[in-house]
Structure formats: C-alpha cells, structure tokens
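Task: fold both queries, return tokens.
Query 1:
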Amino acid sequence: PPRSTLFPYTTLFRSIGFPILYQPFDSFDYPGFLSFYKQLAGAIHAAGMKMVVESGVVFPGVFSTGSGLDVADYYLSLGQQQYIAGRAQQILTIAREIQPDYLVIAEEPDTEAELTGQSYIATVPGFSSMVDTFLSQLNSAGFTGTNVGAGIGTWINGAQGYVNALAAKSRLNFIDLHVYPIDRSFLIDTVTLIDLAESAGKSVTISEAWLQKRRDAEYNG
C-alpha cells in the first residue's frame, strides 16, 4: 500500500460520472439521482464512515446498455470549453450537495480522452489545465476545505510527467493512482510514482486496484 495515505479504513467509495449530476443533460433523472446520492452520503456519515467520490465520466457502450443514457453522442456534441465547464459544474454540485470527505476530480486522462473524444485530456498540459480549472472553480465557490485529489492509471505513457504536473498544484491534497496491470515493469513503476509524489510532499492514495489476468504477451506496445 502507499506509505502515506489519507483514506481511513472505514471508507466507502462511490463513482459519480459526468453527466449524471449535470443538470443541462436532460436525458436522465437529475433530481432523483441527486436525492439518492445525498441520502447515501447521509447514511455513510451516520454509520461513522468517510465518503470518497470519484468524479470522472460515464462509460458509454456496453457499460451503459439498458440505462437510458446516450452519453457517447452527448460527449461528441460538446466543444472543449463546454465539456470542461460541464465537468466543473458537476464537481461543484458534488461538493455542495453531497459533501464527500474526499473528492477525486479527475483520473485516467487517457481513458477520459478516449471515451469523450476530448483528445487534449490525454496530454500532460491538457490534463493539468483541466485540473487547474476544477481547482479554481472549487476555490472560487468557497470549498477550500474539501480534500481534493486527482490522478492517473499507472499504465499510462509518460506517467511521471503527469504526476509531476499534479504534484506542483498546491491546492491538490493528494494524488490518486489506479493500479491494474502489474506485469512487466508496471508494479515497479507504481512504486516509483508513489515515491515521486511523496518527494513533492503529496499524500498518495490508491482508489482502484483490480486484478488483470493477462500474460505479458497479451499487452500491446
């Protein structure tokens, strides 16, 4: 496990993907979902647990089949500024209405870029700029005490560049990692990223670590 961690043992994670709580997205039940998440947060805190929310994006395709969501077409309808503004608004809604103890505002830039068509997110400058916008919006709205994190999947090309960019953000309380493959050098790379973040004074968390049953030969590149 990471040597410096914020998440206590009595913690419940919840992913709230964009645009479920973005009110202009009118293809889903915004009031119903907002009410559900607020009740869930209340139940978590009443049980003496902490709540961690990852605010990424809803996966389209087979992951959303039968849900009534049409996020693939919706993502394609958004320009860069519209997309970032929408993501920022949902993050503010989560902070204001749900009030999680820890809020991960961006994760897996390569995955988000692929799912949404917003290719700039899969670059260090693009991802860093988007995170800056989210942090600025949170600060401007007065959520200066919210524990905020952002991070990457440890498999991403140029991972150290992303971690360096995030570590330079004083408002960011922690850097979060997703760990899936541990073949080849991935596990050692994960330790290197933890060391890099900690050397910059950032706490490190791992909010996702799932087993992938693949041989080395099954990985491309």
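Query 1 returned. Query 2:
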Amino acid sequence: MTELPKSYNPKDYESKWYKTWLEKNYFHANNQTKKPVYTIIIPPPNVTDRLHMGHGLNNTIQDILIRWKRMSGFETCWLPGTDHAGIATQMMVEKSLAKEGLTKEKLGRTEFIKRCQEWKDHNGNIIIEQLKRLGASADWERQAYTMDPQLSKAV
C-alpha cells in the first residue's frame, strides 16, 4: 500500500493536468455543435497590472459556471481576453519613459504607440499566464484583445 504524503503540493500535479487538458482541447468550443450553447466573455482585465483578488474571485465564479454547463452537456465557450486600458496604459508607459529621462513628446507619436504596444504585449501575456496558472478553462484559441483590428472593425 502506498502512503499518501502528509501535505498536498499543487506544483506536483496541477501544471501536468492543465497541460493535458489543453493538449486534448477540452476547453475549445465547437461552433458546429448540435448541443445547447453556453458562453461567457471574460470582462477583460486591463493590461496595466497583474491580476488581483477581485480578478481571482470573478474568474473562479465564471470557471465554475462554465465547467458546470460543460459537464451538463452544453457546448461551452469561455472567451478570454485583455483590455488595452488606453489612458491607464499611457500613464504606465509615461512613468516608464520618465525613468529613462524621456517624454512621449520627445519620443514622438509612432515610437510612443510602439512602446504602448510593447507594454501591452508584456503585461497582457503575464495576465493570461496568471489566468492559466489559476486553471481557468477558457477557450485560449479564441483569445481577444480590445484593440484587435477585427474587433475594432466590428465596433
């Protein structure tokens, strides 16, 4: 008989199982389904910072709902994404520039927009990875960003 460890170490199991779920495409919604459909769109977190406890609570509730519907026979799509947080992102980039002795005016419009995009790429990916570490069962193949060209066109 194998003795169980005295304490549970999530690092020993969670990343392995999450990787398996992703590889088997368990979270991907089939848009040709005959099943009833249930969808949640994550209120996208801003790319200006890391997730906080409110995000953890909000995403846990959404994950419970989507998993429950999935187990109840629905075709589920939990659509993940991030929000550009325009003015807040601009402020974070301007603070970063100030540390370099620069301003957005000195940098110029094109380079400033490039820096904002770099900020989004860095911080937005951190947020997505944090959601994955939480075990979020979102359809990562459909990840969206509020400034994606196709979303802007739709608006």
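Both queries returned. Flag for query 2: The first helix runs from residue 14 to 23.
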